[in-house]
Amino acid sequence: MRHAPFLRPLLLLALVSACREAPAPPATAVPAPSAARPPTDVKWGTLEGKVRLAGTPPAPTLSPTTGTVVSVCGEQAEDRTLVVGAEGALAHTVVSLKSGAELPVPSALPADPVLDQKKCLYEPPVLAARAGATLTLRNSDPLVHNVRAASGSNRSYFNVAMPLDGMTTRRPLPAQPGTLPIHCDIHPWMRAVVRTFDHGYFTTTRPDGSFRMEVPEGTHTLVFWHERLPQVERTVNVRAGERVEVTQDWTVSELK
Residue span of the signal peptide, if any (predicted)? Predict the structure, then answer.
């Protein structure tokens, strides 16, 4: 649907008004990563491996875009809740330590997350971050988007209008660990999810399904999370200076 030029400023004003941020809940005592320093007497090892999906994955769902955005986004947008590469490599799986909050501060603290909007898709579709960290939002499209984050019983945590190409803004993530879905109300096929933790022992798998994490020596419970697959926990023992390889395989029959 096309709008007369004189209506566009009114529509933009209405969008910005609708996206006024709801007050965030009071922060709790989550230690700020920048204030923490890793102890010098900890001995470290490395966890690395690959996550794979066995079997032929279903074809991704395609959503038709609207006529006004086809030149930027294409005629169809591909669902990215399941991204499978060569030999079943499963991207965007969140890998974390179950009891990471009880461990010393990581030797390398995770950077604050960045969520971009490119060709009418959120990039990346899955993020992992510290609870209470600052999420950077970027719009790389010459289109109006908005970023609505809902937590709890679908209550809006923040809702930000991003009408300008190249616009960047920042918003705090909830102070409590959990899962935060993100949507664009203008382009309903756009969605992402943020998993947050009260520690720094987490990562996401790369396009080839690989991951790597430095951890203190000892016995750890490794948690594999994917929004369309059952959560899996694996116990691993890591010695100082040792590299432990862990492979996690799901099958297509387990897909939700």
Answer: 1-29
For residues 156 and 185, is the Cβ–Cβ distance under 8 A? no
Place of tokens 């970027």: 138
Q: Which residue has the higher pLDDT, 39 or 102?
A: 102
Q: What token pair was written down for 149?
A: 């984050």
d(CA 110, CA 128): 9
What's the rounded Cα separation, in Å, for the pair 175 and 196?
9
Residue spans of the domains in the chain: they are 42-254
Higher pLDDT, 67 or 69: 69
Q: Predicted confidence band at 2 (pLDDT cuts at 50, 70, 90)?
A: very low
CA distance 128 to 16: 28
CATH code given to domain 42-254:
2.60.40.420
